[in-house]
């Protein structure tokens, strides 16, 4: 099963009319008509309404909400409502609340507050999902199921500790295998009974918070366990939905690059992926592109839903900037360009009270349609209507892959040494930005993905190398491709134990280098790196000392006792190359390396000298290419058209070689002529 079937890109968002009187609903729908809102996500936090007591279910209000949406002709993404448990449940069964990292058992409050291992929570959440599905599955307006909400966080209660032990038994089978994996002879940790194993927290292995652990292996396994425990919650609910709804697709809303949950392990269990995009600032175009590509990569390139974004501003941050005019539209089109088949908002109408009363909404407290925000939403609704079904199901034809790996993220950031300042996302973002500015179409994929279709594979800060990955990367180079990796890659195996070989472990042969020493310095320290004949860039944070074992030197350090030694190398391997970047190069340095690689394969985009002009291509199921040009700058950009085609929003003809202007924060959606 794949995506919900819709005639066009779905447009709408979270709608919680249970918070206001029914006479307002009528007004809401007239405004939805005006904005061409066709999809509503209902019931995300309704558990306290739908189950007011242990043996009592009451769907009267949700019935009216659903019936009204259906009668108004909207498509419905219906939630199971288990993202927050009701007060009576916590009161009757204190086990459903979470215990935090410091060991404090929480009482009722907030949301995303349930212990994933609590049998009571699991039973009641599953039962609620079962009843919701049974009740509404026959309603043709329901096109998708939304399980829970933004799974995340962690619990450290006794039930979770017991669940952890079960998970470990399944993974390791014997205590000998577990002791070996965790290297427990270090600091007298040899376990002689499963019941001796504790959840790693502030009370046990940790100090200074969740990233400082005495035993990386234990903490890493707890992260994996917690992600799996919440996945089990999702799967319980999905199975219950399936009992009465065999064909309506199921999703849950992800949070993009969210560290606690390994979305690659979840992805096979979702029918389609969806995510909530709340960029921290308005400088995040590249980061959003990366995250869209990551989410699209979860389901092997299948389109996804943008489940939430704010039309204007968030509320939860200390400072909540307003999206400038045009940005909401531009970023919505960016999502579509990267594979979104739905553009949905949080939220359609603003809450009257509680912590999100100042969160942006399509309709504010006064219920007006003559606001700037409403007008921009309505204009986008009109445009998406004009686009119709033109991009539905369309895929991205990328020959560049960027590897993204939660295990590497976790193992790098819970490591003591070499440096707490090297952050996984920052390294990935740096390499992604270089690709993005060069205009390369790319996929962001798991380390288990099939790499056969890619000419270029980038693996920044790939701290952990597991399974047959090294062999698959070698195969990419063998047949003429390029593989790029960086400092701190291939350091540990899947249990976070160092490889008992030269660094970079299983990537040594492909990279043709050996590293005996490395130096970490504060951000103020710069070692210049000379690239090629005459380019000088800055390197910071980490400096590995490279001893070539066949690789050619491409860049050298310019200072300190290792001045003149390699900082960037390229190894010929089969018909291709293994590139090793041993230091934290600045943006210019990363870009220099990435451009060399893209140029070799002819994969640099049409406008590499226009970094704010983003291009992205989708190919529809019938082979039509749709090229998106997105100008993230606040001034127009003038270029030469690279294709022949028709701009779908204006109907204008585009001719290859002719001058083309993309207005400030504007987008062109070009259907290319068949070649
Ligand atoms: C998340 C949640 C929503 C809402 C928004 C506010 O994405 O899923 O319920 O809280 O944040 O930005
Ligand atoms: Zn728990």
Structure description:
- The protein is of the alpha/beta class and 675 residues long.
- It folds into 3 domains: 10-94 and 121-152 and 249-387, TIM Barrel; 400-601, 3-Layer(aba) Sandwich (Rossmann fold); 613-672, Immunoglobulin-like.
- Helices cover 30% and strands 21% of the residues.
- α10 crosses α14.
- The longest helix is centred in the middle third of the chain and has 29 residues, at 216-244.
- It is globular, with a radius of gyration of 26 Å.
- The protein starts with 9 loop residues before the first strand and ends with a strand.
- The structure holds alpha-D-galactopyranose and zinc ion.
- Zinc ion (ZN) binds next to α6.
What is shown here, in short?
The protein has 675 residues and is α/β, with parallel strands linked by helices. The protein folds into 3 domains: 10-94 and 121-152 and 249-387, TIM Barrel, CATH 3.20.20.80; 400-601, Class I glutamine amidotransferase (GATase) domain (Rossmann fold), CATH 3.40.50.880; 613-672, Golgi alpha-mannosidase II (Immunoglobulin-like, Sandwich), CATH 2.60.40.1180.
List how many beta strands DSSP finds. Answer: 27
Say what the CATH topology of the largest domain is.
TIM Barrel
Total helical segments: 17
Structural class: alpha/beta
List the helices and strands and how they pair.
Layout: E1 10-15, H1 22-35, E2 39-42, H2 47-50, H3 60-71, E3 75-79, H4 87-92, H5 119-136, E4 142-146, H6 158-172, H7 175-182, H8 216-244, E5 250-251, E6 253-254, H9 263-266, E7 274-277, H10 285-298, E8 304-309, H11 327-337, E9 340-345, H12 372-387, E10 400-403, H13 406-413, H14 424-438, E11 442-445, E12 456-459, H15 469-478, E13 482-486, H16 508-511, E14 513-520, E15 527-531, E16 535-548, E17 552-557, E18 566-573, E19 576-581, E20 583-585, H17 587-600, E21 613-619, E22 625-631, E23 637-640, E24 645-647, E25 653-654, E26 659-662, E27 667-672
Parallel strand pairs: 1-2, 1-9, 2-3, 3-4, 4-5, 6-7, 7-8, 8-9, 10-11, 10-12, 12-13, 13-19
Antiparallel strand pairs: 14-16, 15-16, 15-17, 16-20, 17-18, 18-19, 21-22, 22-27, 23-26, 24-25, 24-27
Helix pairs in contact: 5-8, 6-8, 10-14, 14-17
Bound molecules: alpha-D-galactopyranose and zinc ion.
Residues 98-99, 115, 117, 155, 157, 159-160 line the site of zinc ion.
């Amino acid at each position: 099963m794949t995506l919900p079937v819709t005639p066009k890109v779905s447009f709408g968002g979270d709608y919680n009319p249970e918070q206001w009187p029914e006479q307002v609903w009528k007004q809401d729908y007239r405004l939805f008509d005006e904005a061409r809102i066709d999809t509503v996500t209902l019931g995300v936090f309704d558990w306290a309404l739908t189950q007011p007591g242990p043996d009592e279910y009451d769907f009267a209000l949700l019935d009216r909400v659903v019936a009204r949406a259906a009668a108004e002709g909207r498509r419905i993404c219906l939630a199971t409502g288990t993202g927050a448990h009701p007060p009576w449940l916590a009161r009757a069964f204190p086990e459903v609340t979470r215990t935090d990292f410091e060991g404090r058992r929480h009482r009722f409050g907030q949301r995303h507050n349930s212990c994933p291992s609590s049998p009571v929570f699991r039973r009641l959440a599953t039962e609620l999902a079962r009843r919701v599905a049974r009740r509404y599955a026959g309603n043709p307006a329901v096109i998708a199921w939304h399980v829970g909400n933004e799974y995340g966080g962690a619990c450290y209660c006794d039930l979770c500790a017991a669940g952890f032990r079960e998970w470990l038994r399944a993974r390791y089978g014997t205590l000998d295998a577990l002791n070996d994996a965790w290297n427990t002879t270090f600091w007298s940790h040899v376990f002689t009974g499963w019941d001796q194993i504790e959840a790693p927290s502030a009370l046990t292995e940790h100090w200074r918070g969740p990233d400082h652990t005495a035993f990386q292996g234990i903490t890493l396994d707890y992260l994996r366990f917690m992600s799996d425990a919440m996945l089990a919650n999702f799967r319980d609910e999905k199975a219950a939905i399936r009992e009465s709804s065999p064909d309506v697709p199921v999703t849950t809303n992800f949070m993009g690059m969210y560290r606690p949950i390994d979305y690659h392990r979840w992805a096979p269990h979702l029918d389609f992926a969806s995510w909530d995009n709340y960029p921290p600032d308005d400088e995040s175009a590249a980061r959003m592109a990366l995250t869209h590509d990551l989410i699209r990569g979860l389901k092997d390139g299948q389109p996804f839903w943008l489940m939430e974004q704010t039309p204007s501003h968030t509320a939860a941050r200390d400072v909540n900037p307003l999206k400038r005019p045009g940005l909401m539209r531009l970023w919505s089109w960016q999502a579509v360009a990267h594979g979104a088949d739905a553009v949905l908002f949080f939220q359609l109408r603003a809450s009257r009270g509680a912590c999100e009363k100042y969160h942006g909404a399509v309709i504010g407290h006064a219920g007006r349609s003559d606001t700037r925000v409403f007008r921009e939403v309505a204009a986008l609704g009109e445009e998406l209507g004009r686009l119709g079904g033109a991009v539905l199901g369309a895929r991205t034809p990328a020959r560049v892959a960027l590897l993204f790996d939660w295990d590497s993220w976790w193992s790098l950031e819970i490591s003591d040494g070499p440096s707490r300042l090297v952050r996984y996302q920052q390294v990935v973002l740096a390499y992604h930005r270089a690709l993005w500015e060069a205009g390369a179409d790319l996929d962001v994929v798991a380390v288990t993905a099939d790499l056969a279709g890619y000419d270029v594979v980038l693996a920044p800060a790939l701290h952990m190398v597991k399974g047959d990955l090294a062999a698959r990367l070698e195969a990419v180079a063998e047949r003429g491709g390029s593989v790029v990796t960086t400092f701190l890659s291939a350091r540990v195996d899947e249990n976070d134990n160092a490889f008992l070989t030269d660094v970079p472990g299983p990537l040594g042969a492909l990279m043709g280098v050996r590293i005996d020493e490395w130096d970490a310095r504060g951000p103020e320290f710069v070692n210049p790196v000379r690239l090629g004949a005459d380019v000088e860039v800055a390197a910071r944070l980490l400096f590995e000392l490279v001893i070539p074992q066949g690789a050619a030197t491409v860049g050298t350090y310019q200072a300190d006792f290792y001045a003149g030694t390699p900082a960037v190398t390229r190894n010929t391997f089969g018909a291709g190359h293994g590139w090793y970047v041993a230091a934290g190069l600045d943006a210019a340095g990363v870009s220099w390396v990435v451009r060399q690689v893209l140029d070799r394969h002819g994969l640099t985009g049409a406008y590499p000298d226009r970094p704010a002009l983003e291009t992205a291509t989708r190919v529809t199921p019938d082979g039509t290419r749709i090229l998106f040009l997105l100008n993230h700058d606040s001034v127009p950009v003038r270029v030469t058209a690279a294709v022949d085609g028709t701009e779908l929003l204006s109907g204008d003809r585009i001719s290859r070689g002719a001058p083309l202007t993309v207005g400030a924060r504007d987008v062109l959606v070009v259907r290319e002529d068949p070649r």
